[in-house]
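Example record

One chain of 133 residues, shown exactly as stored in the release files.
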Amino acid sequence: MHEFPDLQDLIDNPDETLDVELKGWMDLGDSVCKAKIAKHIAGIFNSGGGFIIFGIEDDKTYSGPLPKGINEYHSDDIASIIQKYLKPTFSCRLTKLTSKSGDACIVLAIPSLETYPVTSICDGPLQKNGRTK
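Predicted structure tokens for this chain:
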């Protein structure tokens, strides 16, 4: 991440780039979602840092309000995902914002690679065929 962009601009003008990943709402209580989030965090961290924006789909449409039954997004949830799946551990910043159209979004700011690349230390849950999801 060479420069720190305006987070409000990231959600008002969403676009996927090498350092910005758009994701609809994901259940941070679901083990498959946790493993997928860890994979995205590692990729962004190792490529220079960036952002995951939750609440915006790949086609740049807003996902609407956080669905019932999905846990609120908290820094502790992200920290536990990083601690379980990645090494070395590091901190990310989570910011809740509202787009100019009134849609809720959460921006996860991921720092850049410092000395060592982050690696996976844990697989995601297994499918019925024995492969990870």
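Notes: The helical segments are 7-12, 31-46, 75-85.
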